[in-house]
Amino acid sequence: MKTIAVIFGGRSTEHDVSIITALASVIKPLELTKEFKIEPVYISRDGSWYWDTKLKDIKLFTSGGIEDFMSRNQPASIRFDGGLTLLKSAGLTSRKQSARIDVVFPAMHGTYGEDGSLMGLLELAGVPYVGCDLRSSVLAMDKVLSKQMAEAHGIPTPKYVYFDRPAIQADITLAVKACTKKLTFPLFVKPAHLGSSIGISRVTNEEELQNALEVAAHYDDKLLAEEAVQNLIEVTLPVMGNSKPEPALLERPLNTSEDFFDFETKYLHGGKGGKKGGGKGSKGAQGYSQLPADIPKALYQKAEKIGLQTYAALGCTGTARIDMLIDSKTGEVYFNEVNPLPGSLYAHNWRIAGVAGVDLVRKLIVLAEERHNSRQSTATAFETSYLKQF
Q1: By C-alpha distance, which of 101, 190, 184 is closest to 143?
Q2: Distance between CA atoms of 14 and 316, rounded to whole angstroms?
Q3: Residue 330: is it exposed, middle or buried by C-beta count within 10 angstroms (0-12/13-18/19+)?
Q4: What pTM value is reported for the model?
Q5: Does residue 191 carry a pLDDT above 90?
């Protein structure tokens, strides 16, 4: 029986979302397979690692009991030994416990996890892990880099400008002028590295723009402003695979550019916090999506094609979600952003596409091992006489 470490939490504004993804969408279906031994690894907000079977219980987090748990238990550690082994001391005798990990299933959103940080550690350890690799995670989690990569592959994206935090702090009025010179209101202002709609603002004038730039700079050291797409149809496409990626269903959140879904609407009110359009199809992750998207067949196929092209252009493997924006009058499909670890793995979408939650996590582990085994054939040693001259 293979041992799977599920890592979640972390030093991120999306810490709480990560907990739900791990417990509900990863650990639960993995246990239902009865094929794996699951080792939950929780990373606290201060970066400490904890490993214990009690961490599978959602009540530990919803009750606030996690603080008491951490005060009573010593953090775990990891050993690099041609792979990855979890270590901790347990009990009054500080007896050492260890677990050799076969595959890691990251369930961390945002900074220090989904952005490639955790992937780099796992690649150094030489252990297979689920999802996008280091390089594609870095590209996907940087909205500016992902747009630049899409443009390099001929994939349309809305007009945008970007800044770093020092530029905003030095003279925010110059940033405002740069935006108004190149872009036309309304605009969206976004932190470059965050998800879950944190720190995003829609603005219609210079005063709102300045405030939005300050907010985004509070959450990230890199930010961008981009033009809103007119006659908006927003769609998203979960994709799974390595060299031969397959799409799930094109999904349409039922909102408009004037009423986009922020973090609170997405996660705290079941998606009921704004105007909704009607439509056919099943509801999505937070109960506000049209699934599959009820749009003309040709437009559906065009968006699906661009989603797959983007997945390939960024070098994604395992799974990711491609977000796109459609101008319903012109039929233009724009790449918006990539989520290298979709919240809840977008299991609701895959389920309707014919892949149940149990099969989804099983497939993702197979893909992780497939990629890892493929990379083992790559030469990493090169014999030279360089050191003999010293």
Answers
A1: 190
A2: 21
A3: exposed
A4: 0.88
A5: yes
